[in-house]
Structures are given as structure tokens and as C-alpha cells.
Design goal:
The complex is a heterodimer of chains A (128) and B (484). Chain A is built from 6 helices and no strands. By secondary structure, chain A is mainly alpha-helical. Chain B has helices spanning 29-41, 52-57, 77-87, 102-110, 123-150, 164-177, 193-203, 221-229, 246-249, 265-277, 303-308, 314-320, 337-348, 361-368, 375-389, 402-405, 432-446, 451-458, 462-471, and strands spanning 13-14, 21-25, 45-49, 59-60, 65-69, 93-97, 115-118, 183-186, 211-215, 254-258, 279-280, 289-290, 294-299, 323-326, 358-359, 394-395. Chain B has a 5-stranded parallel sheet, sandwiched between helices. A 5-stranded parallel sheet of chain B has the order 9-10-13-8-14. In chain B, strands 1-4 form a two-stranded parallel sheet. In chain B, helix 3 links the parallel strand 5 and strand 6 (93-97). In chain B, helix 17 packs across helix 18 (451-458). Classes of the chains: A mainly alpha (128), B alpha/beta (484). The interface between A and B is medium-sized, with 21 and 20 residues.
Chain lengths: 128, 484
């Protein structure tokens, strides 16, 4: 895949909700946010691995549950675009469209790589 | 999956700490960690569970409040809710759903959940809900103690009547008082929707705040937005000064949107945004003003049909109609008539020219035969008019408004052609409903329309007979000329 801008079918959603992340840091602490981000990145990596497996196996029920879990985790931390792409994947799965699901899974993996790069603690202060 | 709580005050299961204990049932680790930290920061003891199985495996004392993610992986959050409610039906349960699953939240509320939150969960909203739920728990405990001390249940003071329909209404109102759940009051005109809304307001934690009611049907579509959300000076011709809308006036209290089905499409869109953001923007203004208001709505229409017909937004419907409460029509609770009459007489004493203490059985019987299309409001008017006509201490049949005096059951003038045919001809077997129909008609004929005596002959109560008359559609009015 080339480094193209996100496809036009994706909602014009920012990568992160700065408001949500700032609120978490303000309400608890910056250290807690770092801890939460680390937890999120580890957990989502596992979730994506599982999602990739069940999509490859064409296990619709498990794929739906995994996409839904991923969406919930992303929503919790305010990782907006990852959440939107996971939501799109859920839609395609609900329609039983495996081809679109495969493509969206690739988008999801790319988006996660992007999220990881901006959420790394030393970079988060200048995150978009 | 974990079979024991992941963490708790003493890791033995549901255990009370120094303060209130919140059981958190959530399978997503990020959400769980965040929610737990927020709750602990607010002083709660948190017990975490990552699956329905781990909740079922836990034993010991129940928590003060439970917070359940309804999208719990393979196991359903509903199962957890039911499991806990079996142990204690009054345990306040806060459910969490995905944003697009409001229907699931609605189902949970109907199944007895205390409140619902949508993901991503907002910290303030969570803490607010948990705080209220804990208060509710304490209240339930104190009411339980009180009830066991008195040995009896108590209806809400403002709702008059002891019929099964009113008891059910009372219980529903008590259930929704303490939370901010969106209640929609459904019922015919005159059944007391605003009264119930006030009961919900005054019985809940917002009682110190204002109660504001707006009748959407009474406001032209062009003015609805300005009435609800206010306007800035110069927003339109005639807006000579800034005016607060109902939302701002109800801040900290309750706002009743009466006849919400009559709201224009444009206002529906703005209302939806307001409910989502919990801020208002005055007409002609640019500032988002936060408003903390409990919303109740009421309608005499079938809102679901309005949604299906495309006249009411579905997304708004799901926001407003989380917990529908149906108010009974007066004709469905005629047994409450004497109590309602007494209530209105007491209420009217201050303005009455002389003291009227009661109503004669004959007059009450006439009232029982009326179909009350205007419900309790119509009854109040009838009692008021009768008090003005009454010259003694008791309202007699002659004191009732003339149009009511002429009403007696229609069946008086009807004849069963052949009384011997009561059971059907020869071997003919009639449905029980038809037999009942004939027996009632006959009883009324031989008693010349006296419902009281007919009920006695039939061996049933008078209220039951009126109910059966209504069900068998026998209770219409007579033309005045046929009155006995």
C-alpha cells in the first residue's frame, strides 16, 4: 500500500479527540493518561491480531464481536478515526461483505500504526 | 475469563467497603481501567468484573450500585442484570451501551435498569449517575424499613386513587423519580400528565430546582425555538431584549415538554442537538450555554406511529421515550370516582359559597355511568359546577350538570325479545361473552336501569358491572327523552 491520504469514503474524522485526552489528564493526571495509553496500545494490538485471525477464518460472529470490542476501546480513549474505521468494518460485516471487510481491515491496521505513532508519549504533546 | 472479581476491597466478591461499593462489569480493559480510576477518585470502592461468569461466581454482600457494559463479549450484559436483580430487585443498575444502540438501552430501562450511559462514557455523567444511584439505594433501604415498620405500602400523595391502574402508575413513578431517565407520559387529554410530571419532579433530587412546563401545541412553529432555547436581543424583529428559554429557566430542575408530538421538524432537530450536547444556543446567539435539566415529555399521540409516518424524528424518539408511562383513562378506574370526588370537594371548599361535604349515592351512580372522554379534568369541572348548583351539604343527582343527568345506560330502553332465549335456542350453545351480555341486559331491564340493584342481582360489585358495561359497549347515553 502506498502512503495515500485516507479514502474519501471515510468520515472526515480527526485521529484523536484532544478534548477527551486532555480531560482525562486533567481529571486524573498526565501519568495516568500515559499508563492508560500504554494499556490501550497493548490491548488494541492484541485485539487487532484476533480480528485479523477471525476475518481470515471468515468467522462472522467472532469478527463482529471483535470489531465491536475494538470500536468500544477506541471510543473510550477518544481515538476517533480508529473507532470510525472499526465501525465501518462492523457495518460491512453485518452486511456479510467480506471483500469490503478485508479492505477495511487493512485500513484499520494502517490507522492503528498511525495512532501508535502519534500516541507515543513523547509525541503526544504535539499530536494533531 | 476471570471467575473471580479482578480486584475488590478484599477480593472475596461483593463486599462493602467504608463507603459505597460500585461493581463494574466491563470486558474492555482500557474502559475498565479508566472508569475504575474515575470512580475511585470520587471516593467509591470499586469491584471489577470482566465477564458475566465472574459476576455469577461472586458471592457475598451485593454492591451499592452496579455498572454493566451491555455489549459484554460473548455473554450478555442482560444476563448479569437479571442475575443481580434476582438477588435484589431494587439494586440500582447503570447500563452502558454503544452510541448506536440506544434501543438496547431502552430495553434495559424497561427491564428495570436505573440509568443508562452511552460510550464513550463521560466522567461527569458517570459520577452524577452513580451518586444518584447510591442515593436511590439509601432511599430504597429507608423506605423498606419504613414500610416494614408500618406494614403497608403508601401511594404517592399527589396521585389520587387506589385502583390497580393507579397503584401500578404510582409504582412506575416511584421507580423513575430518583434518576434522570427520560420519561414519556402517555395518556388521553385530562388524565393528569402534568400532575404526574410534577410528582416525578417533587419526588426526586431536583425538587429544589424549578419545574417548567411548555405546551408545544400552544406555540406556533415559528416561535417554538425561541420559547425553548431563548433568544438574543436583536435576533429577529421585535426581540428588543435577551430572553431566556425554557431550558435555561429550568436549569437545575425539570422541563416538561407537553404535547411533544406537535413540535415542528426544525425544533425537533435543535432539541435533538441540545439533548446530545446538553448545551443550548439562544436564537441569534453563538455561545453554547450548558444546561443541567431533567427532561420529561408528554403526548396524547402514539409517537411511534408519528415516527413511522415520518412526522417525528426516530433519533429524538429514542432519546425522549426511554421509559414510557401510560396514564389510565378515568373510565378504566371508575372505582376511584368517590375518592376523586372527595378530593375535588376538599380542594374546592375554599372557593365554594357554602360547605359541601359529599355526594349522594344516586349522583355518584350517574357519574359512574358516564364515559368521561375528558377524564379527571372533566370530572373536576363537573364537581365544580355541581358545587355551585348545590344548596345543601350533599350534591344530589339534580345538582349535576343537565347533560349528565340525562345519562343512564342505554340498555334500559332495549328489550330482549324473548327472555326465554337467554341461553339460546334448542341445542344452540352461545359464547360466554354473549350469555354475560344477555344476563346484564336482562338485569338492567328488570331493575329499570339501576346499576346498583342490577349488580346485586348479578352477584357482582357495582364497579365491576360498570367495567363490564364498558367492555361490552353497553354504557352509552340515552337520549334525554328516554330517561326513566
Amino acid at each position: 500500500m502506498t502512503d495515500r491520504p485516507p479514502p474519501t469514503t471515510l468520515p472526515p474524522t480527526p485521529t484523536l479527540s484532544k478534548v477527551r485526552l486532555d480531560a482525562i489528564a486533567r481529571d486524573v493526571s498526565r501519568e495516568f493518561l500515559d499508563e492508560l495509553v500504554a494499556l490501550f496500545l497493548t490491548d488494541v494490538a492484541k485485539k487487532l491480531e484476533r480480528l485479523s485471525d477471525v476475518i481470515r477464518e471468515r468467522d462472522l460472529e467472532q469478527a463482529l464481536a471483535s470489531a465491536h470490542d475494538l470500536k468500544g476501546a477506541a471510543a473510550s480513549l477518544g481515538v476517533l478515526r480508529l473507532r470510525a474505521v472499526a465501525g465501518k468494518l462492523e457495518d460491512f460485516l453485518q452486511r456479510g461483505d467480506w471483500r469490503a471487510s478485508d479492505t477495511t481491515l487493512v485500513r484499520l491496521l494502517r490507522e492503528f500504526a498511525h495512532v501508535r505513532s502519534v500516541l507515543a508519549p513523547e509525541q503526544r504533546a504535539v499530536a494533531p | 475469563m476471570t471467575q473471580q472479581p479482578l480486584t475488590s476491597s478484599n477480593s472475596l466478591g461483593f463486599s462493602p467497603g467504608e463507603g459505597d461499593v460500585v461493581a463494574l462489569v466491563e470486558d474492555d480493559i482500557t474502559t475498565r481501567h479508566l472508569t475504575r480510576t474515575w470512580l475511585e477518585g470520587a471516593g467509591y470502592v470499586v469491584t471489577e468484573f470482566d465477564s458475566a461468569e465472574s459476576v455469577r461466581a461472586a458471592s457475598g454482600t451485593l454492591p451499592t450500585v452496579v455498572c454493566i457494559d451491555l455489549g459484554l463479549g460473548e455473554s450478555s450484559g442482560f444476563d448479569v442484570m437479571n442475575h443481580l436483580r434476582e438477588r435484589d430487585p431494587e439494586l440500582p443498575t447503570i447500563v452502558v451501551t454503544a452510541e448506536r444502540e440506544v434501543e438496547t438501552a431502552v430495553a434495559a430501562m424497561r427491564a428495570g435498569a436505573y440509568d443508562y450511559l452511552t460510550k464513550p462514557v463521560d466522567r461527569e455523567r458517570l459520577l452524577h449517575s452513580v451518586r444518584r444511584a447510591c442515593e436511590r439505594r439509601r432511599l430504597v433501604n429507608s423506605v423498606r424499613n419504613l414500610r416494614s415498620a408500618l406494614g403497608t405500602g403508601r401511594l404517592l400523595d399527589t396521585l389520587v386513587g387506589t385502583s390497580p391502574a393507579m397503584r401500578e402508575l404510582s409504582q412506575q413513578v416511584e421507580r423513575v423519580m430518583e434518576s434522570d431517565v427520560a420519561v414519556c407520559l402517555l395518556g388521553e387529554s385530562g388524565t393528569g400528565k402534568e400532575l404526574v410530571a410534577r410528582a416525578i419532579h417533587t419526588g426526586g433530587p431536583r425538587r429544589q430546582g424549578p419545574f417548567v412546563a411548555i405546551n408545544c401545541a400552544a406555540i406556533p412553529a415559528a416561535l417554538q425555538e425561541s420559547e425553548l432555547f431563548g433568544h438574543e436581543r436583536g435576533a429577529f424583529t421585535g426581540a428588543t431584549q435577551t430572553r431566556l428559554g425554557c431550558f435555561e429557566r429550568a436549569r437545575g430542575g425539570t422541563l416538561l415538554l407537553d404535547e411533544v408530538g406537535e413540535m415542528s421538524a426544525a425544533t425537533q432537530a435543535v432539541l435533538l442537538r441540545t439533548l446530545q450536547e446538553r448545551t443550548v444556543r439562544r436564537v441569534g446567539g453563538s455561545q453554547e450555554i450548558p444546561v443541567d435539566v431533567r427532561i420529561l415529555c408528554a403526548t396524547h399521540r402514539d409517537l411511534r406511529s408519528e415516527v413511522d409516518a415520518g412526522r417525528f424524528r426516530e433519533d429524538l424518539y429514542f432519546r425522549l421515550v426511554v421509559y414510557p408511562i401510560e396514564l389510565p383513562a378515568l373510565r378504566d378506574r371508575l372505582e376511584d370516582l368517590p375518592m376523586l370526588v372527595t378530593h375535588f370537594l376538599e380542594k374546592l371548599q375554599i372557593r365554594a359559597p357554602h360547605r359541601v361535604r359529599g355526594m349522594s349515592p344516586e349522583a355518584l351512580e350517574v357519574l359512574s355511568g358516564h364515559s368521561w372522554p375528558g377524564n379527571v379534568r372533566e370530572l373536576e369541572n363537573v364537581v365544580h359546577r355541581s358545587v355551585l348548583s348545590c344548596r345543601t351539604e350533599q350534591i344530589e343527582r339534580a345538582d349535576l350538570p343537565r347533560d349528565l343527568q340525562g345519562r343512564i345506560p342505554r340498555v334500559v330502553s332495549e328489550r330482549v325479545d324473548d327472555p326465554e332465549e337467554l341461553l339460546g335456542r334448542g341445542d344452540e350453545v352461545l359464547p360466554l361473552r354473549e350469555l354475560e351480555h344477555r344476563a346484564i341486559k336482562r338485569a338492567l331491564r328488570v331493575t329499570r336501569g339501576s346499576v346498583g340493584r342490577a349488580a346485586k342481582l348479578l352477584g357482582i360489585g357495582r364497579a365491576t358491572l360498570y367495567r363490564r358495561l364498558a367492555e361490552l359497549e353497553l354504557g352509552a347515553s340515552n337520549p334525554p327523552g328516554e330517561v326513566a
